[in-house]
Amino acid sequence: MADNKRDYYDILGVSKSASEDEIKKAYRKVARECHPDLNPGDKGKERQFKEANEAYEVLSDSQKKPLYDQYGHAGVDPNYGAGRGGGFGDFGFGDIDLGSIFESFFGGFGGGGRANAPRKGESIRASLILGFEEAAFGCEREVEVTRVEPCGDCGGSGAAKGTEAETCSQCKGAGQVRTATRTPMGVISSTGACPSCNGRGRVIKSPCPSCKGNGAVRRRIAITVKAPAGIDDGQTFPLRGQGNAGANGGPSGDVLVTVSVRPHPLFIREGTTVHSEMTVTFAQAALGCELEVPTLDGKVKYTVPEGTQPGTIFRLRGKGIPGLNGRARGDQLVHMVVDVPKHLSKKQKDALLAFAEACGEEKRKGKGKGK
Question: Where are the beta strands (DSSP E) in 184-286?
């Protein structure tokens, strides 16, 4: 029952007044903490991850969120529609009719629209955790989603094998009937869903036992995902036509994949620019040296000029992140850090004092004191 399901706001840890951005941030946090890839074998985390996906799918939808706020789970989940019994998909449809399911998944109809007109399937959401390099250069992974598919046993017709759905005798297959109501101001005509076929335009006398006549089932499947090169943390890309099946011959919806990128121990990303640090000794900074600098493509040699100051930034062109959609690759900015020696030996101190005297630092020090 719906009462056994956790509140979507509690699942994401936000209040009912949370903004769209706050809901998105909360979802990304829970999804990252509970993702099955990071918690292999932990059924509790897997359950929390699925709950977070379900909650975000509703609370991020401008049409579903108001229904959930007003009616709770019954407003958005066909399992609990209008307090009716029965399950959904692989768990059995019970006495829920196809019109109710498709109206919930693919949107209702109104304003005189045909109930049995083709409608596009609803998009569903998935999350994907990538390594820093995977996001930079793209990769192929798998994500699991639960989606509505046409029933394989009846081909989506809803009728048992060897039988066919019959045209509704009341609406003649239109799915709508016109009624006339006499009022003090005259006769008012209106058009609504046919009560005999629930707006489907057809009647199934021998329903398919697999889908209970609904023509659709809900399945958990794995989909191969090609994450584009240059995708960044928090960005979403679509898998066209991989979402819920359309109604009445309409096209399938999409799968919207939101990416979370693991931090890198050496690199920080800013758009297509990569930042890194390189530590050199005082002598290397003063005299210059040749270093091997780590990049996303491996180590490259770089000549540090003599007299390099702390905080100096060197640019390695074309060593950053590839731009999305084939755009130019960014640069890597190397921030120089000069390591000041500690715990000097007497010999080292004497050498530095001699160096300071050669530079006239003692004289400058005296002038600084007003001498």
Answer: 186-193, 202-203, 216-227, 236-239, 255-261, 268-270, 273-281
